[in-house]
């Protein structure tokens, strides 16, 4: 930028896109100063290097704004994990399923883990049956991202929510904070 450019001659492009052609560096700097703008090296590897006349501060500000805007649009993926055992009781299963359904409604991915202990390792089909049962129950909320897979003493499966989270499905902390605020 400006006096930091080392080339003797540059291919100069004006602020409006007009090409001035190959100019000596002092002359290019004089043209940029005359317009009250900066001379910025755009392509240093070209022969001669390409320089553009622009307001560098304004350009950096616009780049930052674009970056912020793209960050707003990007959604961070949250993975919640729910652990089961092959000998799970029906009540415990129902309770855990309510949590899984809530996580999916909030828009989080859910990793289901079946933990095997001791002789339970001899019957991995029990764990697979539980995971398939879970997948069937939440078929309207989610799809299976990775099929059940044995990984040592654990069997895992990942569910990906099919719908975007609704506004009403806020996290419990947000609901509690909204309940404590006085009505206006």
- Structural class of the secondary elements? alpha/beta
Largest pleated sheet = 4 strands, mixed
| Count of domains | 2
- CATH architecture of the largest domain, please? 2-Layer Sandwich
What are the segments in which pLDDT stays under 50 over at least 5 consecutive residues?
none
Instruction: Compute the average pLDDT.
Output: 84
Q: Into which percent range does the helicity of residues fall? A: 25-40%
Radius of gyration: 30 Å
Quaternary structure classification: single chain
Count of beta strands: 8
Distance between the termini: 54 Å
CATH class of the largest domain: Alpha Beta
Q: What is CATH's topology name of the largest domain?
A: Translation Initiation Factor IF3
Tell me, briefly, the overall form.
Answer: rod-shaped
Range of strand content: 25-35%
Q: In the CATH hierarchy, what is the superfamily of the largest domain?
A: Translation initiation factor 3 (IF-3), C-terminal domain
Question: Helix-strand pattern, N to C?
Answer: EEHEEHEHEHEEH
For the biggest β-sheet, the strand order reads 2-1-4-3
How many helical stretches? 5
Describe the structure.
There is one protein chain. This protein is α/β, with parallel strands linked by helices. The chain has 2 domains: 2-56, Translation initiation factor 3 (IF-3), N-terminal domain (Ubiquitin-like (UB roll)), CATH 3.10.20; 79-166, Translation initiation factor 3 (IF-3), C-terminal domain (Translation Initiation Factor IF3, 2-Layer Sandwich), CATH 3.30.110. The chain is built from 5 helices and 8 strands, in the order ββαββαβαβαββα. It has helices at 25-35, 56-73, 90-105, 124-137, 172-180; strands at residues 9-13, 19-24, 38-43, 50-54, 79-84, 109-115, 142-151, 154-161. The strands form 2 sheets. It has a 4-stranded mixed beta sheet. Strands 5-6-8-7 form a 4-stranded mixed beta sheet, covered by helices on one side. α3 links the parallel β5 (79-84) and β6. The longest helix is centred in the middle third of the chain and has 18 residues, at 56-73. The two termini are 54 Å apart.
């Amino acid at each position: 930028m400006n006096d930091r450019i080392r080339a003797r001659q540059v291919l100069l492009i004006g602020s409006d896109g007009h090409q001035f052609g190959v100019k000596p560096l002092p002359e290019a700097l004089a043209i940029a100063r005359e317009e009250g703008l900066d001379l910025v090296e755009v392509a240093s590897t070209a022969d001669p290097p390409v320089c553009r006349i622009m307001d560098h501060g304004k350009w950096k500000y616009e780049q930052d704004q674009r970056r912020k805007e793209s960050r707003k649009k990007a959604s961070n993926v949250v993975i919640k994990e729910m652990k089961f055992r092959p000998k799970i009781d029906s009540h415990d299963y129902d309770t855990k399923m309510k949590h899984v359904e809530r996580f999916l409604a909030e828009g989080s991915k859910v990793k289901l883990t079946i933990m095997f202990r001791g002789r339970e390792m001899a019957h991995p089909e029990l764990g697979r049956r539980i995971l398939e049962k879970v997948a069937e129950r939440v078929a309207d909320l989610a799809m299976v991202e990775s099929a059940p897979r044995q990984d040592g003493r654990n069997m895992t499966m990942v569910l990906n929510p099919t719908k975007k989270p609704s506004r009403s499905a806020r996290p419990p902390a947000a609901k509690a904070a909204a309940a404590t605020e006085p009505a206006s």
